[in-house]
Here is the input.
Amino acid sequence: GQQLNQSPQSMFIQEGEDVSMNCTSSSIFNTWLWYKQDPGEGPVLLIALYKAGELTSNGRLTAQFGITRKDSFLNISASIPSDVGIYFCAGNGAGSYQLTFGKGTKLSVIP
Amino acid sequence: EAQVTQNPRYLITVTGKKLTVTCSQNMNHEYMSWYRQDPGLGLRQIYYSMNVEVTDKGDVPEGYKVSRKEKRNFPLILESPSPNQTSLYFCASIKRLDTYYEQYFGPGTRLTVT
Here is the structure.
């Protein structure tokens, strides 16, 4: 089946720093989605990407759909304490609504 | 407000006592899904539904049942819970955009089976 490798697994950064995380898949995806999960809560959709090469922003967040359609990255600029949480990438193949999830990147922001 | 609701949010029960976790969405989505989340294993799909009365197994369906009698509701049923079903459960409602899909998750139900 499809596999997603998400890295890094965890990161500690100073408030104000930029952050980058990425996902690679073993197969081509039609859609890449990035979610954030706060402790004890459900994942919240941050950004959805539909086209290879697409670059999309949501406030301080920017994500890109890789040209090969097998990877995506998420950048967070000027991190703040409320950025703390676990970030998941997810994707699905053409015509499929079933998502494959990465294992998550746990972000800690040091004030 | 568009949302997915789950009840209860927290549940502690004993082995063998049937329980139901409800899920409801107000976005008129046809597709819905149930996941469980466990440390080190990430999110795993239990069951999904493509429409009313249409359901199918996900990756980890053993020990679970679902029903979809109306579009907005998709309850998860544990007929005889066991301790290995202790987990964090999420319902998701799925928005279809042509051939693209976006999943929206409920707040989660933390289940403990003793």
Observations:
- The interface with chain B takes residues 30-31, 33, 35, 40-45, 48, 50, 88, 90, 92, 94-99, 101-104 of chain A (CB under 8 Å).
- Chain A is about 0% helix and 55% strand.
- The radius of gyration of chain A is 13 Å.
- The first strand of chain A starts at residue 4 and ends at 7.
